Every structure is written in structure tokens, then in C-alpha cells.
Amino acid sequence: MELLLILFAVLLVGVALSKVLKAKELIDGLKGVDEEPISNSEIKTNALGLLIFGFVFFALLIAQIVGWDKFLLPSAASVHGAEIDTLMEVTMILILSVFFITQGLLFWFGFKYYFKPGVKGFWFPHDNRLEMAWTIVPATVLILLVTYGMSTWDNIMNPKNEPDLNIEFVSEQFKWTARYAGVDQTLGEASFALYGSNAVGVATKDAMIKRIGECQLSIKGFVADSVRLEKLIEEGWNKDDKLDDVESSLKNYRANIVRLNRMLDHYAKFPAKYDAGKDDIVINNNVVKIPKGKTIKFQFRSKDVIHSAYFPHFRAQINSVPGMKTEFTFTPKETNAEFNEKAIKEGKVYLKTVRDEDKNIISQVETPGSTGFILLCNKICGASHYNMKVYIEVVEEKEYDKWIASQKTFE
Amino acid sequence: MGGAHHHETFISKYIFSMDHKIIGKQFLITAIIMAVIGMGMSILFRIQLAWPGEGFAFLNFFLGDKWAPEGVLDPNMYLALVTIHGTIIVFFVLTGGLSGTFSNLLIPYQIGARDMASGFLNMLSYWLFFVSSVIMIWSCFIETGPASGGWTVYPPLSALEKAMPGSGLGMTLWLVSMTVFIASSLIGSLNYIATVINLRTKGMTMVRLPLTIWCFFVTAILGVLSFPVLLSAALLLMFDRMLGTSFYLDSIFIGGEPLAATGGSPILYEHLFWFLGHPEVYIILLPALGLVSEVVATNSRKPIFGYRAMILSILAIAFLSFIVWGHHMFMTGMSPFLGTVFTFTTLLIAIPSAVKVFNYLATLWKGNLRLTPAMLFALGMVSLFISGGLTGIVLGDSALDINVHDTYFVVAHFHIVMGAGAIFGMFAGVYHWFPRLYGRLMIPKLGYLHFWVTFVGVYGVFMPMHFIGLAGVPRRYYSNVEFEMFQDVQFINPIITAFAIASAIGQLLFIFNFFYCIFKGRKSGQNPWKSNSLEWTAPVGRIHGNWVGPLPTVYRWPYDYSKPGYEEDYVPQNVPLKEGEHDGH
To answer: Do A277 and A202 meet the contact criterion of CB atoms below 8 Å apart?
Structure first.
């Protein structure tokens, strides 16, 4: 199939080139005076072209829809995802029908009514009933579809059940770090003021005090730098840029200490919010586990730029935005093994790829089933945007409990 | 100023001209150059996507050791190319180029005016466009590379120099270029609006205007209402970058430091950007649809079906385009209720679009289709408008958008409907009005070949791309083979790239045809397409004031093709009505 398409493309290039070379010849031929700017035989040829194109186009599209289905995502691995899949099927059937009818008419009319000399077009400037019909019919269909879509969206984005589990992902260039809410199922306060050795900035009292110390140390270093640079500049060295950088760092760290002190004041009033972070579990690993059948509320924060958390197999996506908490709730309904079995049943395949140490591909085999679940970045975020991922393993509850119990809590 | 003789030097005639026809040509030729650059960039990054990590000597030749060491594209340069490709095609080719060329050429001609309301502003509009183009191209040649945050340049990525190399000087130049571009666009649009309102000739009522003019007019209004919002978004971004404000920045930790700037929101930028961004889609599409309407009616030898319904659709699309911007932001984390509202308004816009498609089909039905190259491109545009419009129903539905947002499905959708669709409209326009521009015809055989290569190429590139998207592959990935799950659709990428290269080479046919025929094309005569609209009543050649003697008077709508009671199958607008005859619609 692909070979055929490539050959076709190459053929087109060849034809194009030969025609360019012939151009001069053609132009010379055209210098004779002709009545009409376009000859009738040219029109006829191109009318036939439209018809043939229509057939080939439809045939290739159908071939792709049928033949490439095995490469598309298997049906959803989450409870709400099934709703999306059904809505997608209904929409696809609708748009493909409209596609084949309207495109079919377009190519057919283009062929059937090609120019014949001495014939006049049919005088048909408007018809109110016809226009009414093709306003009202699409309007009705679309309103039905939109109502269906809106209710699906509402069900997904405003889940009625309380979540069983709270998990947070913090995005940064170019990785995700997970934080589980621990025994109390409450994620403790966190802030960008604490990032550093504290990967997701969990703001317990001790962490804040520790961070103030770190910042003071940094400030000391920068003050020394700035004194040194000022001296060099006095001596005529061209170091103004570096001094600007140091001054901006000083400003940043000083502001951060003010921020942390304010947080400590706040802590004095609402200690529970911060103490909730003590039992949180930070997973600094690119594999995380979640239990099957539990409703999980995922919360997202970003350290630097906008990222987007995309779980294609679960039909879930939401941006991760600095300065904001976003969330998406879903319930995984199959373990990795179950999902793989289902994918095999659905006739899906993947390319099992073996690589050597330098990541060169050694072999690729088309294998029934699916690769595991994954969390991708889906918003342009910098050079390594294309490789920012976390593997997700959906496991039975028992196995999950065992796994999470073996992880270290924050404090 | 009609027949008055002006003293014209080369500079006042061809460089700083205030004549709408010359300015139209200036826009067109600048746009062709920009299109070649934009298309060339897409080939460079398509090579990387098809054969990731493989070295190609010519990439090294074009980009040098820094950006393509050993012929392998650098990831930062990949993002830069994607960004500048998008910016150039969306703004410089399809906004500036399309409106600039055809609004300038056709508005005075088709409404029966001697020139634009302000020749000087018109000239200024072109030269600002020129300057902004130069700055944008210049930004590609600086050490840290051009802007690389995607054509939407979302902060904080675009606001923080530490986030990526392209967010340094390259981004500053991008913003400066866009600011100048917006000024150009606004000046142009105001001029178009003033001209259409004030300078219509006797008898040219609003419901006798060709649909081209309706589209240009409404496009100009969209531009005037939406571009200032982008300008403010760009200015605030500049402040954040240069003056230490934080309109778009909050809680950022980058380069190992927590930034002092807090209190802003990147989502604010997205709202401002898309408030322009969505009307922008129609700023691009409407002129293309206008050109297509005219070309389809003329070459079907039939009146455009449902003229008034067409005008109402244009107005409805224009109005709705202002209240759908949120569908670009379903996944930003904005209130789900807003998602519901924007889903509703977005799917509403499908109704007037459907009406337009059905009206085109009804126009073709029982016509006498003169399949000129322009007509084929117009039919191609309708086909692309259908294909891309229908996938819009998937993307506009927030629930479905969850899983296709920012995947290749989106890339395929918008390239078909507003990329290729608008380009096809533009090609239809160039082939059709080339005789009006240069008094000559383009070579039809080359035109046909150009059409087929491009049409097959476009569908060959973008139809398979939908499937990559449905397999879950995100857009703007430097390489799609990092994940085992996407290996199975990688074989589609070389196919796409092959079609892209073939259709890019096919454009040489057009470029040759265009420039060759400016000088050597066959003489066309005054009205080669037997068209009704006023531009074909003006004498061949460029004269100041367009018509010798008094301006034509208009007695009828522009679509009296094959009207019963007339021997010829066309009746130009300046032919008086016969006794007892009704104006056609």
C-alpha cells in the first residue's frame, strides 16, 4: 500500500518534470491565434479527471479506514472513555456519510456538466424551499449532536462521585513528577517557592524553614558575585550583562524569602493544610502505579511553562499551567494485562521494537496487542517536548496497596 | 483624477505606487516569495519526521553545522521551522497576501471606483507589510534562531529566555514584526471598508455587489475588530519580556530560580490570542470563499445559487467567529461550563458553512462548467472546505476534543480547511484574474498540471495524517518514534513527506507559468471569461482611474449568467434592464 503511494508520488514528480521541460514547446505551439482561452478537449479531459479522482480518492480513503484501523488506539481503558468512544463513532458515521454524499456530488457534477458549446446553464438563481431545507436539516442534526456532546462533556468534567484517590503530577522541562496524597488522601499545600531539592515543592513547616536557609545561602553567594563584578566593571571590564543577571537573581531570591515568611505566617493560622503534606508520597520515577476500578482525581501543576497531560488510552487530557491547578478525574477499568488482551481481541497491533544500547533499532515485529499506558506531554514546551513521558501501570487494588506502602513518605 | 496625466517615474510607478493595481501586484509577489519560504521550511521538517535522526547533506547545506550537525536537524531548529512556517503561511501568505492582493485589485474594479479611498494609506499598508516580512525573515538568521514556541507563541515558553533559545532575540523580532504587520493589516482593512461603503458607482447597491466584495468587506471588518486584540496581547507579552511586568507569569521556577514575577496568568494570553485567532481563520477563509464564489458562478455559466443566503451565511459566520475562540482552549483547565458554551457556538457555525456548500453544489447542478484551471482550483477548494469542515465537527465538540486535541488530527484538519483551502482559493483567483492583472493568459496546460499535482499532493499529505492523529500522536514532536506505541504509524510519515515534496516541486509549474506569462503570455482581450462583473468592462492595461471617461453605471446583479431572454450566456452589470425585465435574484 505505502509502496504504491510512494510510487504514485514519484510518478507525479516525473510527469511534472517532463512537463516543465516541455513547457517551451507548448508555448511555441500556443502562439497561433485561438478563439477561446480554453479548448473544449482540455475541458473534457479534466472533467474525466475529476471523476477518476473522485473514485480513486474514495477507494484509497476506504482502504485506509479499513486497513489502518489496527494501528489506531484500542477502545478506552477508562469508564468515561467508553462514552467518548460511542460519541466519536456516532460523529464519524455522520461526517463520513455527509463527506461521501457531498464530495460525490461535487465530483459527479464536475464531470457530468462539463462545458458543451452552444448550451446554456439552467437559470436557477434561488429556491426558498430548498434553502430552508438545507438550513433546517443540518441545524437539527447539529443541535442533536451538540446536546449529546455537551451532556457527555458535562458528565466527564463534573464527576458526581468523590474520588477514591488523589494524585498530583508536576510538569517541568522535560519530565513529570508524581505525588500521591498518602493515608489522609489530602495533598498538602505546595508552592513553587520550595522547588529545588524538594521536587514538587511540598510546603511542610520544616521544608519551608529549610528552604529559607537555602535561599539565604544563595543570596550570600550572589552578593559576593555582585561585589566582585562591580569591581571588575570599575576596572573597565565588560561585565554589565553578568551583573544584571546576578541582580535579577538577588531580586528573585529576596522575593522568595518574603514569600516563604508569608507562608509561615499562614501556616500559623492553618497548620492542617500544610501538615497534610507530611504523609504525601513523591514518586521520582518514570513508572507509576494506579489501582484498577478506583476513581482517581489527578491534579496538575507546572514548574516552568505550559505542558499538557495527555493519557491517550484513558481518553483524558488537561493542560498543566504555571500558577494554576488543573484537574481531571477518571476511573481506569482494566489492568495492563487485561487491556492488552482486549486490544488483541479488537485486532489492534503494535510494532515490538528492540533497540541496542545506542537506541538504534535492531528489529521491529508487528505484534498483536498494545503497548502499555502512558502519560505524554501534549503542549509544545521546548526542545525535548517529544520525549516527556511517564509509564502508567494499572494494577489490582491489592498489588497497588502493597506498592504504595513500600514508598517513602515526604516526612 | 480620471484621465489626468500624472508624471510618473519608475519609483512612483512601481515602488511607492498609490495605484491599487500595482499595490495588489506588490502584495501578490511578496506573498509568493513568502509562500516559497514557508513551504520550503515545511519540507525541511517533514524530512526529519519521515526519517528521524538520519543525516541529509542538504539539510546541513541549508541550515549549517549549528542547526543541522551532520545533516540531522536540531530539535530547537525543528521547533523554529514549525513556528516560522506557521507564522509565515497564516499571516504573511493567507492574511496579508490573500486579502492584500485581491481586496486591492478587485474592490475598486468591481464596485466601479477609480481607486481606493486613500491611495496613500494603501501604499503605507503594503510597505508596512513589506517591512514586517523582512523582519520576520531576518529573525531566521540570528545566532539563537527565530521564535520557536509554535505560531501561537504561548507564554511562559515565549516569555522566558531561559525556556528555549528561540525565546531570546528571535522572539523579540517576532513580536516587532507582528506589531508592524498588524498595523499594516489595520490600515489596509480600514481602507477597504471605507472604499466599499463610499465609492460604489451609480446603481451598485449592496445587494448588487459581487460576493467577492461582500467577503472582502466582512473580512476587513473582522480584521479591524480582532487584530487590535492581538496587538494588545503582543504588547503585554513584550512588557513581560522587557519591562519586568507579569501579565502572563505566575509561580515560575526556571533555570533553578523562583521568579519574582507573579500574579499573572498564561491563560489570559490564550484568551487574547484566540480572540483574534479564531476570527483569523475566517479572515483567511472568507476572501478565498469570495473568490471561489465568483469563479464558480462565472465558469458554471449559471447564477450563484441563493445569493442572499450566501450573504447571510457570510454575515452569520463572521458574527459567530467572534464567540467561538474558546474551542481552542477546551483543555486549558478553564471552567467546564465555558467548554459547554463554546461547543454550542462552535457547532452553530457549521450551519452557515453547510449552507454555503449546498449552494455551491446547487450552482454546479445543470451548469455548463467551463473547467478552466481557475475553476478546477475553485472546485478543489470546495472539496477541501467540505473535508476540513467536517473534521471540525469532531474538534469543536469538547468531549471529543479531549482525545484529539493537539494531535495530528488537528494538524490535518486545519491544513485542509484553512491552509490548502485558502491557498486553492488564492490560486483560483490568480488564474482567473491574471488577464485583469497583466492583460495576458496563463498557459492552461501548465495550469491543469499544477492543479492535479497540488490537489493529489494535498490530499496525499493530509488524509493519512488524520490516522496518525487518531493513533494519538501529538503534534510538534521532533520525532514520533521515541515511543514504542507510535512506531506502528511511523510508516505513514515517509508517504506524507513524499507527497509534500512532490506537491512542492509541482509549485514550480505555477511559478514558471506566472512569471513567464507576465511577459510572454498570450494576449487575453478585455473579457476572456465572458464575465459580468465590472472589472472586465475596463480597458486592458493599467490606466490611472481604471475607466476612460465616466464610470460605468450598474443596472443589475453580477450573476446574470444564462439568463432567459438573452442570446449570450452572460449579461454584464452595466447593461440596462430590458423593458419588463426584473433584476435577477
So the answer is: yes
H or E element that contains A211: helix A205-234
CB atoms A145 and B397 under 8 Å:
yes
Compute the distance between CA of residue A11 and CA of residue A6 in angstroms, rounded to an integer. 8
- Collect all residues of chain A within an 8 Å Cβ-Cβ radius of residue B516: 23, 27
How many CA atoms, within 13 angstroms, populate the side-chain half-sphere of residue A109? 26
The amino acid sitting at B103 is: S
Domain with residues A163-187+281-411, CATH architecture:
Sandwich (2.60)
Size of interface A-B (CB pairs under 8 A): 441
B400, part of any domain: yes
C-alpha cell at B507: 509549485
The amino acid at B259: L
Which residues in chain A are closer than 8 Å to B485, comparing Cβ atoms? 312, 350, 370-371, 374
Question: Which residues in chain B have their CB less than 8 angstroms from residue A122's CB?
Answer: 302, 365-367, 562
A384, closest residue in chain B (CA to CA): B75
Q: What is d(CA B25, CA B27) in angstroms, rounded to the nearest whole number?
A: 5
Do residue B472 and residue A73 have CB atoms under 8 angstroms apart? yes
How buried is residue A21: exposed, middle or buried, by Cβ count under 10 Å (0-12/13-18/19+)?
exposed
Q: Is residue B564 part of a domain?
A: no
Block means of pLDDT (10 residues each) for chain B, length 585 residues?
58 85 96 97 96 91 91 95 97 95 96 95 96 96 94 95 94 97 97 97 95 97 96 96 94 93 94 95 96 97 95 96 95 93 94 96 96 97 97 96 96 96 97 95 96 97 97 95 92 97 96 96 93 94 88 95 92 92 78
Chain A residues lying within 8 Å of B448, measured CB to CB: 42, 45-46
Q: Rounded to an integer, what distance in angstroms lies between the CA atom of residue A25 and that of residue A390?
A: 61
Residues of B within 8 A of A17 (CB-CB) are: 505
Q: What is the ipTM of this complex?
A: 0.95
Contacts of A378 (CB under 8 A, 6+ apart): A307, A308, A309, A310, A317, B405, B406, B407, B474
> Per mean pLDDT, which range of A26-40, A225-239, B549-563 is the poorest?
A26-40
Q: Which of A19, A30, A172 is the closest to B449 by Cβ?
A: A19
Please list every residue in chain A whose beta carbon sits closer than 8 Å to the beta carbon of residue B252.
Answer: 192, 303-304, 322-323
Cross-chain residue pair A303–B252, CB shorter than 8 Å: yes
Tell me whether residues A5 and B499 touch, CB distance under 8 A.
Answer: yes
B556 in any annotated domain: no
Question: How many structural domains does chain B have?
Answer: 1
Q: B371 and A131: CB-CB below 8 Å? A: no
Are residues B302 and A312, on separate chains, in Cβ contact within 8 Å? Answer: no
Q: Which of B31, B28, B113 is nearest to B535 (CA)?
A: B113
Give the CA count within 13 Å in the CB-facing half-sphere of A148.
18
pLDDT exceeds 60 at position A34: no
B209 in any annotated domain:
yes
Q: What burial letters (b/e) apply to A313-326, b meaning 16+ CB within 10 Å?
A: bbbbbbbbbbbbeb
Q: How far does the CA of residue B214 sit from the closest CA of chain A (Å)?
A: 18
Put simply, the answer to whether B351 touches A138 (Cβ < 8 Å) is yes
Q: Which residues on neighbouring strands pair with residue B258, listed in sequence order?
A: B253
**Where residue B149 sits, what CATH number does that domain have?**
1.20.210.10
Return d(Cα A265, Cα A205) in angstroms, integer: 11
- CB-CB under 8 Å, B369 with A109: yes
What are the φ and ψ backbone dihedral angles of A361, each rounded to 5 degrees?
-75, 125
